[in-house]
Every structure is written in C-alpha cells, then in structure tokens.
Amino acid sequence: MDRRYAVPAVAVSVLLLAGREACADLARLKNGGEVRGAFVGESIRNQPLTMETLLGGRIVLPAEAVESSARRRPEVEEYVTRSRSIPKTVEAHWELAEWCKAQQLTSQREEQLEALLELDPTHTLAHRGLDHVLHQGEWMTRDESMRAQGYIKHKGKYLTRQEIDLLEKTTAQRQAEQAWYPRVRLWKGWVLGSHQGRQMDGLSNLRSIDDEDAIPALEDFLSDVPQIALRQLYIERLSAMRGVKPVACLVRSSLRDVDSQIRQAAFEGLAADQREAAIPYYIEALTDAQNPVVNRAAIALGGIGDFRVVPALTRALVTSHKISYDAPVQDNVSLGRTSDGRYSIGGQSGVALPPNIELLLRTGQLPYGVQVVNPQGIKTRRVSVRVNVRNEDVLASLQKLTQQDFGYDENAWQLYWDAYRSGKGKL
Fold first, then answer.
1. Whose CA is closest to 364, among 378, 334, 343?
2. How far is it, in rounded angstroms, from Cα 157 to Cα 249?
3. Going from the N-terminus, what domains does the chain have, and what CATH number goes with each?
4. Among 24, 46, 344, 399, which is least packed by CB within 10 angstroms?
5. What is the pLDDT of the chain when averaged over all its residues?
6. Is the dihedral of CA 133, 139, 144, 149 positive or negative?
C-alpha cells in the first residue's frame, strides 16, 4: 500500500506555512480545514487530489473530502502569511499595502487599506489608495460623493434623475405624456372661466385623473398657479398615485410651495414605499441656494427617519448663502474754491454756496465745517454678501435621528459617525 494515502484528509486542518518561495495552490476541505501547497498534475473534479505540501511532503486528498480547489500565485500565499503575523498598527498595514501594490495584488491591498482606516480614519494616502474623494470635509467613495451631489450611476455614467428619466422614456411614453397637455390645459381654462357649468366640469375632470402619464402636464399647469385650490387639487392627484413617478413632484412642492399647508400635504402625500425614493431629492436640497429650502429638506429627512442621512445632515449644519439688501450710499460732498476765490460744493465746477453760508466760512465762524443735506433723500444701492447660517432644523433632525447632541460642531458629529461605521458606536 502506498504510504502517501496513510494521512486521512479529514485529519488535515491547517498546515503550517512556509517561506517566501512556497507555492500557493489551495484546497478547501469539507470539514472546514484547508491545505496549501502545489498541485501535482491537473486538479480534476471528483478525482483524488495530489499535493506537495508546504512542509515538503506529498499528500493525496480523497475527492469526497475536498470542497473546492484553486491555483494561486505564490505572492498570494506570502500575503496570507504576512497578513496573519503583522502587528495591528497603521505603519504595518501601510507597509503591507505598499508591498501588495508592488506585487499587483489589488484586492489584498484594498483589504489592508481598509484595516488601516479602521485604526486611523483620517489617513489621506489610504483614502486615496481606495479611490476615495474628499467631499465637503468627509472622505467617501466616488459613488457616495456623486450621490451626495444628486447624481446616480446609470450604465457606467453619473447622471441626474431628470436626465435618467429622459433617457429611459420611450417614444410611446413621451407621446402618452404629451397627449395629456391639451386636456389639462382645457380643463384648467374651464375652471378659471366664468361659465359655472364649465367650472364644475373642469374640476370634475381634473379630479378624475389617475394616470401617471398626466403628471408632467399637471405639474406644468397646476403646480405654481396663484389659486390655492388648484394647487391643493394637484397635490391630491399626485398623492393618489403609487410608484416612483409622482415622487419628484411631491418633493418639489413640499420644499418650494409658498403655502405651508400645501407643503405639509405634499410631504404627507408620499406613501411609505415612496419615501425611500424621495431621500436623494431631499439630500440634494440640503445644498440649495435658499436657506428655507435647506431647513425644509432637513425636516423632511428627520420625518422619514432613515439614519443613513446623518452624514448629509452633518454637512448641512452650517450652510453658506448669498443675501441682498439695500445699503445707503454715502455722498461725500467736497467744498472747494472757484478760480475767483469763492466757495463751492464739488470743487471748480460745483454749485455756489448760499451767500450767508459763504460769509460765515470766510470769517471762520463755522470751525466744524458744513453738512450739506442731499435734497433728493437717501440714496441706496443693492449689495450682495455671502453669510454662513446655522440651520436649527438640520440640528433638530440630527438630534431626532441619533438621540445625540453635538450642537453645530461638524467635527464631533463626523467622529460620532466614524465610530458608528467602525462598530465602536451605535445610533
């Protein structure tokens, strides 16, 4: 009997690793163990597997004992050896990651960089090695960065939701939507007309709309009309529709309608299964130029209750906005003398002072000068400045979602989120 068969496969657990020169073929056993070394001949499914082990011996594994087998580069075996023995320090993980880079072991390098970031979440080179980008003070993946800016990856490209909607609409869909425009326009005209019967018919027809293809026409003709009743009808029709198509319109009205009751109705019109689709729109609104929109978006995100928005809310604690106001213009009126020695307002070409005022000036009886009042009143000019605004509603939503309060300290909130992601904290 060949003594090579004397070692039962089930008794093989994990063989000791050899040095740098070892081969790296791997056999995983059904009992949970593994054998590493070099295959002798071909590895054929359902056939005994012969291997030269890392200790220099040869072993034959019965087919029924082998779960799987794979050929690996020797560098992979060395990586496994080194990764199990290095100290858990930033320096050690970085050194091994650089070695992996030199050996073109991409996935192993990423593994080490991820381990490094668990120890030091601010390590710039590790983030760059993982192709992370710094977005508004926070390191994140490129996909996360683009999502934070309102973009979605679609067939390998980053596009806005509106662009995706246009791309995905077929000719038939566009035609179906266009067919609603003349009808909605007509019925709106009836409602606003003076014929009472037509008014009732127009309202009845608008209230009967339940086709999502009508949404673009409804938005164009009803979303911003002065008549509150028509805007309420618009929200009612959207709220009655399911799916994701009405979501964008409901979100816009919840953020931008001038009437607070309509804004609230639009948010409440989002069904539970639609709110997930609404989150990216509200996150995008956290960077809006209008500060009230930022705070309304924060309130909505707090109401939805998805704690994954904590980083986006953190970035919106303090936002920068441009404000404009009328500032008074200071007319600097100068007193000068003409060529004949007389005093004047504005120098050589100015207007002569009244005789009594000029006499007082000449005789030194006005030691503090003269204040000339502009008869046209105070002049103003439009001035724009950029200011940083602390958003109370953003902070309130963060407190609601996390049950924590770090005030407007973005760094403290970021540290809290990093601790949560690393498993050292929880929401």
1. 343
2. 24
3. 24-72 (2.30.30), 77-149 (1.25.40), 178-270 (no CATH), 273-327+382-426 (no CATH)
4. 46
5. 81
6. negative
At residue 365, φ and ψ (nearest 5 deg) are: -90, 0
Q: Both tokens of residue 6?
A: 């004397």
Strands 66-70 and 58-61 come out as unpaired
CA dihedral 197, 201, 202, 207 (to 10 degrees): 140
Q: Which phi and psi (to 5°) does residue 226 adopt?
A: -65, -25
The answer to whether the Cα torsion of 135, 140, 146, 150 is positive or negative is negative
pLDDT score of 43: 64
Q: How many CB atoms lie within 10 A of CB 96?
A: 22
Which are the contacts of 253, defined by CB distance < 8 A and separation ≥ 6?
223, 231, 234, 235, 238, 262, 263, 266
> Using CA atoms, how far apart are residues 294 and 307, in angstroms rounded to an integer?
18
Separation CA 61–CA 50 (nearest Å): 6
In which residue are the tokens 């400045």 written?
385
Residues 296, 302, 303, CA angle at the centre, nearest 5°?
90
For residue 135, the model assigns a pLDDT of: 80
Q: Which of 282, 284, 326, 287 is nearest to 301 (CA)?
A: 282
Q: How far apart are the first and last CA of the chain?
A: 64
The pLDDT, as a whole number, for residue 58 is 82
Within 13 A of 267's CA, how many CA atoms are on the CB side? 20
> Angle at the Cα of 406 (from 427 to 418), degrees rounded to 5?
50
Q: Quote the pLDDT of residue 18.
A: 38
Mean pLDDT of 52-81: 79
